[in-house]
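in:
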């Protein structure tokens, strides 16, 4: 096994199968494009298990993902893809950068989900893209919008069932060797904002971003609830 990519919280290894990779989830949490980071016991396996449950659920709804199996608690066997350098963000309620950058107040409910795109490039601070800029870069926003909305519908249900409101989330896509567009990366409380239903109580990485503490208590709780309901 050779290391192919070392990300901030995940490491990608080659396998004996040329079209498959092993993604190892590390016991690390980062925020602010890696400016703030901490080693956290059990975090890798917890996010890997949460992500696996969610990918399997999305596959049930015919959303194509890179997920294949979980050889260990903290690793995921996945189809090898070329990651598209876009962060696709879906928002149901206002929080995070949209509150910092607009006049929208925290918690404002949108009449329909908002899909936004950022460039995936830490060295450029992941800037927000316009549809016109995306088109010039060779990406049609419409390729991603329907799938992102479909993922949102499934995730809203999954989290509603365990007493959480899905505020927003980020997904990434990749293209496999056959040219299929697949949902890739991870979906976990590291990449979603989740509030206890009807409140603004964070149960996600904002606990770390805002130094509130209790990150792993929350992640363990989410995993346990998802295991009970799925
Ligand atoms: N997000 C992510 N990785 C990033 C940027 C954002 O997973 O590099 C997630 C984040 O956790 C939140 C959503 O995308 O669930 C929207 O993030 P936002 O644009 O509000 O930025 P932030 O406030 O996290 O800086």
């Amino acid at each position: 096994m050779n290391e192919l990519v070392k990300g901030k919280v995940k490491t990608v290894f080659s396998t004996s199968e040329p079209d498959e990779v092993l993604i190892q989830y590390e016991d690390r949490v980062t925020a602010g494009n890696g400016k703030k980071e901490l080693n956290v016991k059990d975090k890798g396996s917890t996010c890997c298990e949460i992500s696996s449950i969610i990918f399997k659920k999305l596959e049930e709804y015919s959303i194509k993902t890179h997920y294949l199996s979980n050889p260990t608690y903290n690793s995921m066997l996945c189809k090898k893809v070329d990651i598209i350098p876009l962060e696709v963000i879906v928002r149901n309620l206002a929080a995070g950068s949209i509150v910092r950058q607009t006049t929208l107040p925290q918690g404002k409910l949108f009449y329909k989900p908002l899909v936004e795109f950022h460039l995936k490039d830490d060295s450029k601070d992941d800037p927000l893209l316009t549809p016109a800029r995306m088109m010039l870069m060779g990406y049609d926003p419409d390729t991603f919008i329907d799938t992102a909305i479909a993922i949102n519908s499934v995730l809203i249900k999954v989290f509603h069932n365990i007493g959480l409101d899905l505020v927003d989330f980020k997904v990434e896509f990749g293209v496999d060797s056959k040219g299929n567009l697949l949902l890739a990366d991870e979906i976990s409380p590291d990449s979603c904002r989740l509030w206890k239903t009807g409140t603004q109580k964070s149960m996600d990485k904002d606990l770390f971003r805002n130094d509130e503490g209790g990150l792993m208590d929350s992640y363990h709780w989410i995993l346990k609830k998802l295991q009970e309901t799925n």
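note: The longest helix spans residues 142-160.
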